[in-house]
Fold this protein.
Amino acid sequence: MMRLREVLRLVWINIIENKAKMMLTTLGIIVGSATIVLVIAVGQGGKADVADQFKNLNAGAIDITVGDGIDLDAMLSGGGFPMGGGNMPDFGSMPSFGGGGGGGMPSFGSGGRGGSMPSFGGGGGGGMSSSPLNESTLEMQDVEDIKSLVSGLEEVSLIISGETTVFGGELEEETTKTVVGVTDNYDAVSNLNPLYGRFIEAGDNETKEYVAVLGYSVAEELFTYGAYAYGDYIEINGKNYEIVGVLEEMGSVSSGISPDTAVYIPYNTAEKYVFRTSGTTQITAIASDVNTVETVMADIETVLTENHPNTSFDITDSGSAMEAATSSADTFSTLLFAVASIVFVVGGIGIMNVLFVSVKERTSEIGILKAIGCQKRTILLEFLLEANIVSVIGGVVGIGLSFALVPLMELTGTRMEPSWWGYVLAIVFAVITGTLFGIYPAWKASRLVPIEALNLD
């Protein structure tokens, strides 16, 4: 029986003597291995992006905003359209369109009284308000009610935000920035950490202080360095604010606000002196247990619906958003992995075809080996090792190619996070491909009859 070392020597000789054929055979494996490494890198990069995007949010964070339309369920169950003085008027008894008012639709002139729909002229009674639907805003009272009536909450914070003019530092003219009025616990809710100074405190809100905390990017834009901003002043909407803190760079989004590009001031100050009725309000709550988030969300909606009848609310939790984003990244990775698998199959078919041709070309060699006593398994092992070695060489070259391709992919803006198990997986796939697609040609070679093989010209 031929020893393994001798079999390996024969395999190596055949590979060296057919370099061009070997390179063409490994081409599919090279592409497949490089693709596997890139797929893993893209998938890991996508997950890293998701992690960065949500790194300053707790998994139990719940964001509440006023919805865009009417809450139809509340309207239907609560008895009619949102009117100031009752239900839709009785159009059965239509009064004169002149002076005095009656019981049904009031006069469109002056002096109308009573009824449901108000006068469109001078005085008038109650009825449908002319203000837009769903105009309710979240208030501090809502926060207090949620704290007292909803169990399973760690923190509840109210913010008011919008864009307004900011001037200061090295700016030569006013610019527009996102200004956020916050309560003193907002830094804990959103995991914001001051790089210099402090965050907004309870006393700042109680006395409506003119103090501000700058996001990292804003501080650099206005003062070049964050350290220069701390202790200086900026002008917000025409009033001077002392900068009491600068935040660490976050690079992600919290509660719909990018911390790096925002300016934070006390909530009461923002509500009274900056936005008045123009800002957008939002409540962020943190559930004590991520497993009870859905129950907490339902309880919060119940409290807010009681406070603001016929108003819809958008209530979302960060955990669901994180899961959806991660699921999308996983789906994308799976699709890319499927493409890489197809490339490997194509490469494997190439190996199988080349080995079939090799068996035909080396029939006499096989006949001689059998004539000198080589067993079928030795012939099988020789051709199978040849397929595996070719596959491994292709896998290694493909991994080497991926080192050059990763920086090129990053130039397109795609985040790449290569990992060691991506390289291992590429080699494993190469070996499996060589084994699966090489075993049948090897088996065919081992089944050749020695006399028939030697008689071939």
The first strand starts at residue 61 and ends at 70.
